[in-house]
């Protein structure tokens, strides 16, 4: 067989010498493969795979230099699945079929435009396919690289001999050769023009002529895009691997499947369902056309507006396009229409009612091999979802429990000293294998003396003998850590639990430092060290949903059931009651009201007049505030008003504001008269309908470095 293959390749190379001999062109493996579309190789056909990166390039120009360095750098950076050329094709596959599959199943597409790129019909056909993937949303990133050419070379191509584009001569040859019809040639021209208008990297301009610098810039951008798809699991993911393997066995990922498959994961809060679901996602997402992980469905989809928002996010993430959904039923229709023919991975985390299932999983069919994973605290949800397989989550075993606790209580895996060993055993026993409890209590006890440990154990033992549900006992364990905080740490914890989840830590610090001084940075670090708050890879504030629920429960308890005495108001019905009855008091620290886009809610300034301690005001939708703004609370620090209908904001609102977010608003002026503001920082207003420029602000405004005029 091998001898036959060698003979075939020899004959093809001789043929190419005859064809190209008069032109004096070098004959290489690349030109042979490019001309014939056939490579004979021994062995059986291997299954087709997905790729991280597809490199579209002209081999003779850049293969042995730039592309070789780039692909090696990708591999060294942890991106091994890179389709470079026909050498990436498995034995027994037809070249173009394999290339087309690789294009359609790559996440990132890089086109390297070199001086002779346009001479290759293969390169141009690949480019047309790549741009089709881009327009359909399949490509997470299309990156043009201009290697000793300029975007104008791609943009201004014609058949004239006087044309300055280095690609014009290649197109004159395509036209006169007669091997390609005029419609296909026009497609190539259109594709090059489209690519020229995409922001890319240039060897001469971006990297000042240094190839190594260009490689580094490309790899950095690709890593940024691909790493956004990797979900953070945990610093110490103890016991996850065994559960992951069990879940993958149930899902039968590597077996051919008719239709789509659902896995339901259930168990009490804090047992590790979300961690397992994220591990599943990270392990298999590359095998799918599109993929999405929706965390915290229960809290996100509590209202119709929230459920609609989740549907929009699903479509946007899976199709890489923005879709507007007008109703839940419209959202279901859109999901069915756009996703039914795709092989998808969809993970819905923390589902808690039937409406969520019906709105987010309306599919009767999906492409073969699609996978859906649902996590929930309620086993009945798994039945309602008609899951093909179910996995009940249990706590960690004793060995893993000690290991995880030791990581957080002693910052090591080893057994503690004899002085603490017995106490550590009692704490681990009380946590009953729940990772969240082990992590939180371990961090709470880290660095504390024997007396502190003994007091904590006594509190835990008191809870063990109380006849309350197991889930409630977990919350009581978590409260031990909260009760050990200082007053300002508690305040910040409640701010995060009620208003600031998902916010960038710089925004949060700006607010707290304006109120508590620079010590606020230390308080936030204390919350992080105690595992009560986490900061993700994009530096956004996060916390476990049990900790969030505990914080909100504490707010309600402190109000003695009088909603107007709550320090934080986030529930829509509570907010409306307080505003309608003008019951605001100095206890209120923050108000969050997200109204429906098509609705209009009007509130008088008097509704806020009693809230002398108001620091947060977060409005969205068509909310309106009218009246004498001189009566408005003077201590406001964080002001968000998405889709604000006003053309200007009265200066009285902004005297102490340090975070201002007016996304999608009609604002054209932020001041009236000669009022001068205190120093304020503005965060960029994403998706604003009117651009907000620094010139609109008084001279003593301070702008962050990422604000662009």
From TrEMBL:
GO terms for biological process: defense response; signal transduction. This is TIR domain-containing protein. It comes from Adiantum capillus-veneris. PROSITE patterns: TIR (PS50104). PANTHER family: DISEASE RESISTANCE PROTEIN (TIR-NBS-LRR CLASS)-RELATED, LEUCINE-RICH REPEAT-CONTAINING PROTEIN. InterPro entries: Apaf_helical (IPR042197), Disease_R_plants (IPR044974), LRR_dom_sf (IPR032675), NB-ARC (IPR002182), P-loop_NTPase (IPR027417), TIR_dom (IPR000157), Toll_tir_struct_dom_sf (IPR035897), WH_DNA-bd_sf (IPR036390). One of its GO terms (molecular function) is ADP binding. Residues 49-226 form the TIR domain.
């Amino acid at each position: 067989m091998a001898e036959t293959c060698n003979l075939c390749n020899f004959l093809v190379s001789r043929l190419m010498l005859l064809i190209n001999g008069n032109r004096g062109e070098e004959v290489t493996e690349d030109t042979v493969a490019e001309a014939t579309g056939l490579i004979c190789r021994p062995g059986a056909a291997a299954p087709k795979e997905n790729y991280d990166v597809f490199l579209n390039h002209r081999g003779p120009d850049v293969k042995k230099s730039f592309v070789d360095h780039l692909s090696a750098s990708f591999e060294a950076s942890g991106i091994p699945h890179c389709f470079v050329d026909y050498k990436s094709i498995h034995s027994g596959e037809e070249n173009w079929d394999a290339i087309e599959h690789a294009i359609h199943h790559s996440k990132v597409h890089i086109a390297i435009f070199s001086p002779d790129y346009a001479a290759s019909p293969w390169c141009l056909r690949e480019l047309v396919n790549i741009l089709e993937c881009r327009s359909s949303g399949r490509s997470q990133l299309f990156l043009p690289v201009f290697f000793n050419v300029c975007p104008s070379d791609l943009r201004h191509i014609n058949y004239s001999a006087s044309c300055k584009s280095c690609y014009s001569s290649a197109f004159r040859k395509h036209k006169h050769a007669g091997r390609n019809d005029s419609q296909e040639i026009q497609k190539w021209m259109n594709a090059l023009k489209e690519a020229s208008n995409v922001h890319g990297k240039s060897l001469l301009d971006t990297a000042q002529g240094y190839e190594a610098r260009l490689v580094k810039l490309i790899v950095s951008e690709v890593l940024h895009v691909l790493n956004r798809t990797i979900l953070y699991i945990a610093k110490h993911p103890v016991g996850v691997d065994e559960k992951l393997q069990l879940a993958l066995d149930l899902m039968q990922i590597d077996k051919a499947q008719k239709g789509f498959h659902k896995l339901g994961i259930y168990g009490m809060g804090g047992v590790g369902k979300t961690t397992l679901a994220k591990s599943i996602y990270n392990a298999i997402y590359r095998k799918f056309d599109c993929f999405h992980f929706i965390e915290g469905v229960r809290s996100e989809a509590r209202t119709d507006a929230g459920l609609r928002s989740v549907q929009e996010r699903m479509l946007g993430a899976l199709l890489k396009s923005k879709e507007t959904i007008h109703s839940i039923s419209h959202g279901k229709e859109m999901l069915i229409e756009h996703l039914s023919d795709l092989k998808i991975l969809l993970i819905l985390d923390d589902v808690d009612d039937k409406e969520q299932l019906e709105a987010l999983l309306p599919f009767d069919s999906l492409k073969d091999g699609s996978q859906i994973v649902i996590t929930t605290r309620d086993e009945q949800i798994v039945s309602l979802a008609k899951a093909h397989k179910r996995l009940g989550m249990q706590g960690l075993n004793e060995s893993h429990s000690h290991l995880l606790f030791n990581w957080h209580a002693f910052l090591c895996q080893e057994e503690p000293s004899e002085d603490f060993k017995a106490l550590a055993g009692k704490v681990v026993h009380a946590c009953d294998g729940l990772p969240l409890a082990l992590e939180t209590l371990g961090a709470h006890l880290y660095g504390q003396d024997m007396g502190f440990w003994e007091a904590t154990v006594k509190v835990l033992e008191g809870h063990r003998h109380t006849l309350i549900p197991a889930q409630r006992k977990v919350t009581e364990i978590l409260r031990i850590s909260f009760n050990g905080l200082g007053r300002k740490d508690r305040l910040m914890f409640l701010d995060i639990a009620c208003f600031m989840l998902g916010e960038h830590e710089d925004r949060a610090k700006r607010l707290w430092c304006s109120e508590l001084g620079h010590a606020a940075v230390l308080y936030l670090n204390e919350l992080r060290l105690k595992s009560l708050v986490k900061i993700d890879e994009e530096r956004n504030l996060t916390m476990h949903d049990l900790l969030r629920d505990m914080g909100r429960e504490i707010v309600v308890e402190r109000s003695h059931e009088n909603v107007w005495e709550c320090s934080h108001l986030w529930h829509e019905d509570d907010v409306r009651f307080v505003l309608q009855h003008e019951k605001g008091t100095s206890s209120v620290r923050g108000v969050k009201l997200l109204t429906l886009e098509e609705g209009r809610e009007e509130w008088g300034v008097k509704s806020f007049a009693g809230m002398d301690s108001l620091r947060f005001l977060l409005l969205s939708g068509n909310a309106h505030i009218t009246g004498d703004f001189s009566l408005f609370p003077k201590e406001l620090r964080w002001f968000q008003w998405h889709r604000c209908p006003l053309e200007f904001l009265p200066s009285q609102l902004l005297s102490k504001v340090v975070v201002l977010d007016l996304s999608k608003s009609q604002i054209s002026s932020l001041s009236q008269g000669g009022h001068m503001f205190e120093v304020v920082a503005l965060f960029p207003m994403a998706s604003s309908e009117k651009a907000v420029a620094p010139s609109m602000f008084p001279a003593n405004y301070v702008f962050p470095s990422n604000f662009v005029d």
